[in-house]
Specification:
Chain A: Keywords: ATP synthesis, CF(0), Hydrogen ion transport, Ion transport, Membrane, Mitochondrion, Transmembrane, Transmembrane helix, Transport. Chain A: Pfam families: ATP-synt_A. Chain A: This is ATP synthase subunit a. Chain A: Belongs to the ATPase A chain family. The complex is a heterodimer of chains A (223) and B (247). By secondary structure, chain A is an all-alpha fold. Chain A has one domain. Chain A has seven helices and no strands. In chain A, helix 2 runs antiparallel to helix 7 and helix 6 packs antiparallel against helix 7. Chain B is mainly α and 247 residues long. Chain B starts with a helix and ends with a helix. Chains A and B meet through helix 1, helix 6 and helix 7 of A and helix 7 of B.
Chain lengths: 223, 247
């Protein structure tokens, strides 16, 4: 039983080795092998997703930075596999932990910022005052924009983790009532859970997409 | 890769060996596969489809393993008995994960049953189009080569026609030569005739001149032989005749 509301997110592991974090890499097993000239259904679906995302991200990044979509697509795939596999029972959801999401968001944001500050300093400062700001508001706008820029990795990380936690919490709470219910009510529970699972699968994909597309947008702002 | 290779059947393993041999060898795969009994049967290794399953995910081999000892119902009985044992001894605890797992299982089964065929059809269509794209190059190459062969055969046929045409031309040339020969013969005849006519004309003219000269000579001789007396007698005679006539 749960000792507190969030204990279902506890990283329980064997052999004192935190092996639960290995679930991050479970997604690798789902990337289909591409040894053959003619792809399998699974691989074809994967190609379709990747190509769609490529066009999606390319329009945001622009044509001058070639190959950047690869990084964002990888990020999307990794987060999506973690989210979706986390919905399966007994699989640790690493993306519901800030240590995972923040360690994705923070270094990326930092690298974008440092790149921008070093290479396009003026441009980066110009971003602090949006166009058409009245002169009197400019000092405040700088403060507001600076804060909004600084909290970006935090919002990225917390958005993803909070979404994952919320869904899993609901699933866990619903599931915990299971043993006390009669068979008829249990059916209602299952239907509820199925509906919730559909929602959560959608959220899993959407949140990974949001993470990737916001990172793309942040990266496109620095040049 | 190797652990998977050990699970493959003999023929598949041979295919895999051919593939690995091809990766290492510089010669084409046919020579690598030539070692086996029938090289045509080995062929090119292709992507394998997954094996048969029951209930959507349990390998058929597990059921055949049970079949010899327990018959058809054996594996199912075993599965039910084992899960009952695990649940009743609380080795498997039905906590919240069980219920969410159950809902996920139902969701997956319904999803695969309802959406699976449509998605599979769409994906297969895409794959078929992709494969068709690859085949298109080969097919067009084959078509082009066949068109070339056809063209070549037509060329050979028309080359055979050429010999006939050359014969006809040769005949035509012979006819032309004959015509030219005859024209020349005619020309020679004409020229010779012209010269002979010339000679004949000269002879005629000489004869005419000679004749005139002779006539002139005779006339002059006759005139010179006429004396003034004779002339006077003649005139008198004429006047007398005229006088006689006037009477």
């Amino acid at each position: 039983m749960m000792t507190n509301l969030f204990s279902s997110f506890d990283p329980t592991a064997s052999f004192n080795m935190s092996l639960n974090w290995l679930s991050i890499f479970l997604g690798l097993f789902f990337i289909p092998p591409a040894y053959w000239l003619i792809p399998s259904r699974h691989l074809w679906l994967w190609y379709k997703i990747i190509i769609t995302l490529h066009y999606e991200f390319k329009t945001l990044i622009g044509n001058e930075k070639k190959g950047s979509t690869l990084m964002m697509i990888s990020l999307f795939s990794m987060i999506m596999f973690n989210n979706i596999l986390g919905l399966c029972p007994y699989i640790f959801t690493s993306t519901s932990h800030l240590v995972m999401t923040l360690s994705l968001a923070l270094p990326m944001w930092f690298s974008f910022m440092i790149y921008g500050w070093l290479n396009n300093s003026t441009h980066m400062f110009a971003h602090l005052v949006p166009q058409g700001t009245p002169n009197i508001l400019m000092p405040f706008m700088v403060i507001i924009e600076t804060i909004s820029n600084i909290i970006r990795p935090g919002t990225l990380a917390i958005r993803l983790a909070a979404n994952m936690i919320a869904g899993h919490l609901l699933m866990t709470l619903l599931g915990n009532t299971g043993p006390n219910l009669t068979l008829i009510v249990l059916n209602i529970l299952l239907i509820l859970q199925i509906l919730l699972l559909i929602l959560e699968s959608a959220v899993a994909i959407i949140q990974s997409y949001v993470f990737a597309i916001l990172s793309t947008l942040y990266s496109s702002e620095i040049h | 890769m190797l652990s998977r290779a050990s699970l493959l059947s003999g023929q598949q393993f041979k295919n895999l060996l051919a593939l690995s041999a091809r990766a290492a060898a510089t010669s084409p795969v046919s020579s690598a596969a030539a070692g086996s009994a029938d090289s045509s049967a080995v062929g090119r290794p292709a992507r394998q489809e997954p094996g048969k399953v029951r209930l959507g995910f349990l390998p058929e081999e597990w059921f055949t393993f049970f079949y010899k000892k327990t018959g058809v119902t054996g594996p199912y009985t075993f599965a039910v008995a084992l899960s009952t044992y695990l649940v009743s001894k609380e080795i498997y605890v039905m906590e919240h994960e069980y219920y969410s797992g159950l809902s996920l299982l139902i969701l997956c089964i319904v999803g695969v049953q309802k959406l699976g065929p449509a998605i599979a059809k769409t994906l297969d269509k895409g794959i078929d189009e992709y494969e068709a794209q690859w085949n298109e190059g080969r097919a067009s190459e084959t078509n082009a080569l066949q068109a070339q062969i056809k063209n070549e055969e037509q060329l050979q046929w028309s080359a055979e026609g050429q010999t006939m045409l050359i014969d006809a031309k040769r005949e035509n040339v012979a006819l032309q030569l004959e015509a030219a020969y005859r024209a020349r013969v005619q020309n020679v005849y004409q020229e010779v005739k012209k010269r002979l006519d010339y000679q004949v004309e000269i002879l005629n003219i000489e004869n005419r001149i000679n004749q005139r000269n002779l006539v002139d000579w005779v006339v002059t001789k006759v005139r010179s032989s006429i004396t003034p007396d004779q002339d006077k007698q003649n005139i008198d005679k004429c006047i007398a005749d005229l006088g006689a006539l006037a009477k």
